[in-house]
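Retry 2 of 3 after timeout on previous attempt. Resubmitting structure tokens to design endpoint.
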């Protein structure tokens, strides 16, 4: 198990306006700098998602994305122009904290709020539209530079000068490792079972992994990664 850590925040963001983005409803470009996040068990006040079926919910109340990833994606020429936080639609931005340091089930304290890490971000085709590259979502899936989501264990406020404190580590599966297992190219029941046993894993991922085990196959990712390209 890794040692406990304390990290600072580089930015807080929220937004609740839905707009059409290349023909798709999205809130991703409506996020703006926030002086404070007021966090409830099921939402952040003033923040919303355009597609609640695939985004948000109790296991995905807050999205955390490492700011330095923008630089790497720019160096890979995966962005059509200059993008920076909060262009991923994140609520929390940091520097110096990544998917290898954060683990599924981690309990963290930020200001008044206690949170639990539930899953990596599962990239979809809306990122291709956002950044002007047809394979951006695939690149995020393969690089595992995806950020992660939190469920809320205690409500309160988060301020820009608050520290992010790891209180307790529940599993030995990092966000990066979870991403690797979940998106293995070949069906692997043993690896899926390891991920399923992670305390705190988001229920949608639990359900998806269980379906794979029941059906002995992986679902088709084409629509999620590329949208309706026909």
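Retry 2 succeeded. Sequence:
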């Amino acid at each position: 198990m890794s040692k406990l850590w304390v990290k600072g925040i580089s930015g807080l963001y929220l937004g609740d306006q839905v707009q059409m983005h290349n023909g798709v409803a999205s809130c991703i470009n409506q996020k703006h700098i926030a002086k404070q996040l007021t966090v409830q068990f099921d939402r952040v006040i003033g923040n919303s998602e355009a597609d609640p079926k695939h985004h948000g919910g109790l296991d995905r109340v807050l999205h955390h994305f490492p700011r330095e990833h923008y630089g790497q994606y720019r160096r890979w020429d995966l962005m059509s122009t200059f993008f920076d936080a909060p262009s991923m639609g994140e609520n929390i931005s940091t520097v110096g904290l990544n998917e290898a340091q954060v683990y599924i089930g981690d309990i963290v304290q930020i200001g008044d709020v206690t949170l639990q890490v539930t899953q990596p971000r599962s990239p979809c085709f809306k990122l291709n539209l956002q950044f002007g590259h047809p394979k951006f979502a695939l690149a995020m899936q393969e690089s595992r530079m995806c950020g992660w989501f939190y469920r809320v264990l205690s409500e309160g406020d988060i301020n820009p000068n608050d520290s992010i404190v790891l209180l307790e580590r529940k599993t030995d599966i990092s966000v990066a490792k979870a991403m690797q297992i979940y998106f293995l190219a070949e069906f692997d029941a043993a690896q899926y079972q390891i991920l399923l046993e992670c305390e705190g894993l988001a229920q949608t991922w639990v359900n998806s992994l269980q379906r794979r085990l029941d059906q002995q196959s992986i679902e088709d990712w084409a629509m999620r990664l590329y949208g309706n390209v026909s």
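Attempt log closed. Helices lie at 68-75, 126-131, 136-143, 175-182, 189-196, 203-215, 222-226.
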